[in-house]
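Appendix B. One record, verbatim.
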Amino acid sequence: MTRARRSSLVVVAAAALAAGAAHAQTLTACRVPGLRNSVQCGELQRLLDPARPDGPKIAVHYVVVPAMARRKLPDPVFLLAGGPGQSAIDVGPQAFALFSRLNTRRDIVFVDQRGTGRSAPLTCDDARHETLAEQADPDRQLKQLMQCKAALTQRPYIRAESDLGFFTTTLAMQDLDAVRAQLGALRINLVGISYGTRAALEYMRQFPTHVRRSVLDSVAPPDMVLPASFSTDGQAAFDAMLRACEQQAACAKTYPRLRADWAALLAGLPRAVTAAQPLTGKTEHFTLTRDMVLSAVRGALYSPSATAALPAAITEAAAGRVDALVGVGALLSSRKGIQLATGMHFSVVCAEDAPRLDEAADKPGADFGTDHAALYRRVCAQWPRGAVPADFYKVPASPVPTLLFSGGADPATPPRHGARIAAALGPTAQHVVVPNAGHSVLGVGCARDLLFRFIDEADDQAASALDASCVKAIPRPGVFVPMSNTTEAATK
């Protein structure tokens, strides 16, 4: 080893020791519900608008789960949550099972992105306990969101309505890098899920030398126009469900009229129905609309196990019994930790996606249409729009080993997006498609082991050539058959 090389290593080691000392001074012991052991909490004051040094500041909060080993590795793992609008700290306890092996020698870090969780949250009233008719009324939704916008301007960190434009992905990733620096890490590993993959790609664009490895699960890239792609990709996933039913003997036998029942259901809308509100259990009388049906189907398609119940739910709904369809559609929104900071969600989408709706190449699905995008158009016409750099939409080639996961049955971020981004990143990126997985793959089969092996591998070339074949053969769940159907079949 040359004298210059030894000197540079000494400088790096000294810097790491100094950063580690500063790191220790910025954290306090704390508890997070759902995490068994004590963790460390930190916060960082950040300018709301970096161009206004005398402007308001916000506190960005984060949690560190310390490595268990005394001699830990210097590159922590950062989780970037989905949404946009999820709190990484709130999601952390559910996601921690993915990181338990990595936590042996690496710190795990959950940062609440600005606008979420504990970091200057842009939260609106939770509408999940409203009546079904109230939840489905687009005019009411718009009115509530405008009321939320007005209420957000009363927060101490929002001085004017235009300040809602400072909650973009670009600024949030600058916050994330400031957390990295405060923790004293020279490089970090990124694990992004859904919208978190967009955040990870933006971090890689702005701070390429600070990334060691990146894992992108359910890729939602910056050039994806969210409201438009929802229709295209939701339709593709639904059509695939119909084909899968026709190809599975049990499904085809139990639901031989599934396509006809679906067409009849849509043709009969709107219609007066009765159903139980899934979260309150109260029976309600309301008008079932096309948008309500499509929202329920879209929500169920996120999970293959919920998708397996769709043929039964559609068949029942076509006969006028909609409880099953309403219930299966509520599974996504009722999951703990899935709730979004709605104001932050619209601050991101209205800045980064909505302005590109008119130029989106995605064609609306035959059934899903443009209703979903219509609400975004109406809201974003009145929501402050943050500045987005032109380079935000470009994904440059990267030397960072990157592992991308896509679920073949995903209605929101199917493989076409992951494939495009893997090609842009270059030869260090590996795209793994799990044909029968839905939205979010890391919790499926051996994917958690692949995550560990990819980040733990010391050699970059070996990490980029990871054998991921174990996760590709996961079968599609069998179709749900109601108990009454199986009983009838057994007695014949």
